[in-house]
Amino acid sequence: MNQIPRSTFVPAALLAGLCPLAANSVYEDTAGSGAEILVEAAAAQPVAATISVVLFLVGFLALIVVLGVLAAAIARRTPALSGIVVVAGAAAVAIKLAEAQTGIALRETAGALDPGTAEALVAIDAAGFAVYGFLLALALGAAGLGLLRSGATAARLGWWATVMGGLGVLTAAVGIVVPDAYVPIPFVLLLVWLIALGIAGTRRPFPQLVAQGSALATQ
Q1: Are 12 and 218 in contact (CB under 8 A)?
Q2: Eight-class DSSP state of 109
Q3: Transmembrane stretches, by residue range (predicted)?
Q4: Phi/psi class of residue 151: alpha, beta or left (left: φ > 0; alpha: ψ in -120 to 50)?
Q5: pLDDT score recorded for residue 5
Q6: In the 8-state DSSP scheme, what is residue 180?
Q7: Assigned domain for 174 exists
């Protein structure tokens, strides 16, 4: 049962980091005027957009696994930080789901919407990204600090998530107040951190994750 970190956590961490980055590279919406948004929403979705959605969904599911494992792994040593990971992570998941529902609603009702409403829905998506970035940065920053204190990973990985998590919270808070001023560089670097964490796990299991996995497996 000690294979849990390698067989579950490692691929989940890699997918959680790689999939969002790949999805944005494959296809990215370009918001224009309300009329242009409606035309694009009513048109058949291109293949690249479908691939992008699939990648986002895979990465999203993998992120849920990663957050759950990290929260469980640091719970014994740093229960408060584990709680932050759980609460902030769950809130981030809820925000992302709501953002997806907005996009679906736009496509389903494009023929009945006016341009102003279409622009409002796109603005809601943009605002949701900043809120999502705030909550995910908070969750991963807390996880990084918990891993640092527990010694479950190399110190540089713990510091990476802790510092980028703090910067991600700050920049996303600015983006919530002034959406056009949001600079998601720390958010992107946290995705890269997930990839680095997964790569580190391929070399050796994380002690706390192994112990936690064994405990969960015996329940």
Answers
A1: no
A2: T
A3: 47-73, 118-145, 157-178, 184-202
A4: left
A5: 56
A6: G
A7: no
CA distance 64 to 69: 9
Helix axes 185-203, 115-150, angle to 10 degrees: 40
Which of 166, 200, 206 has the alpha carbon at shortest distance from 186? 166
Residues 6 or more apart whose Cβ sits within 8 Å of residue 93: 60, 63, 64
How many structural domains comprise the chain?
A: 1
pTM of the predicted structure, to 2 decimals: 0.83
CA angle (206, 7, 208) in 5-degree steps = 20
Torsion-angle region of residue 182: left (phi > 0), alpha (psi -120 to 50) or beta?
beta
> What pLDDT sits at residue 215?
44
| Domain span at 75 | 4-129+194-214
For residue 31, is it within any domain?
yes
Would 94 be classed as within a structural domain? yes
Distance CA(151)–CA(123), nearest Å, equals 42
Q: Is residue 182 part of a domain?
A: no
List, for the chain, all residue ranges whose pLDDT scores fall below the cut of 50.
1-4, 208, 210-219
Q: pLDDT of 35-59, one tens digit each?
A: 677 777 677 677 887 888 889 889 9
The residue type at 5:
P
Give the pLDDT of residue 181. 87
